[in-house]
Amino acid sequence: MKRNILILTVCFFFFVPFCFSQQENNYHNSDGHFSLVLPDSWIQIPGDILSKKNAEIGELYKGIAVIKYDAGFEKKNKKHFAYPYLLIKIDKNGKLTNSQIQGYSASGQFKDRVGEALKNVESFSSGMLKFGAPGEIKYDEEKQMLYYIQEQDVYGVGKVKAVNITMLSSFGYTSLYFNTLSVRFDEDIASFNQAIDSFKYDDGYQYSKPQ
Fold it and tell me: Do 132 and 152 meet the contact criterion of CB atoms below 8 Å apart?
């Protein structure tokens, strides 16, 4: 289980049923049993474009991980995957235990493993990516989520900052990866905060802390 989260947190650079409301920019994912509200200026990345990006990532990191994001979102009227953008990955490998959660947030070992994995990704990227030290992994018990911030140098782009959120569920978790240019982080983070604040699982799929 830790390997799954670890792999996804280091591969955030790059179809499930969904429904948008006509009145509001609401998104519902019936496979992941969750919904969220996006800013009006955001749209879903087309399925064929996301599939192509998944294939590119899979080829780049062959031998390290098999990556397949389930959904993605970006601003309207911009080139696909131009910053900022949001990627979503659904994991159904089972509900995390309390000890697993505490292990992620309290153990420096997991942070060290993330750092080690980042170095491996750097070596496979042929100099295109250079990661800073991973941020502290924190656990928000009220919202039942794990989160941390990561910054990296991207060749031809500059510094990029990513916020990685893991929303716990009754069946596993949903990971959300928000990526934007570091110089625009303070301005763009409001869009991501809106999506996170509105995120909720359908009835019966929320995470309940073991007694």
Answer: yes
In this prediction, residue 86 carries a pLDDT of 95
Lowest mean pLDDT among 44-48, 50-54, 119-123, 172-176: 119-123
Q: From residue 102, how far is each of 94, 134, 137, 152, 172 by CA, in Å?
A: 16, 18, 10, 26, 15
C-alpha triplet 36, 46, 90: angle, nearest 5°: 50
CATH fold label, 2-199: Protein Transport Mog1p; Chain A (3.40.1000)
Q: pLDDT tens for residues 60-89?
A: 767 666 668 999 999 998 899 999 999 999
Contact between 5 and 89 (Cβ < 8 Å):
no
CA-closest candidate to residue 83, choices 148, 175, 174, 156:
156
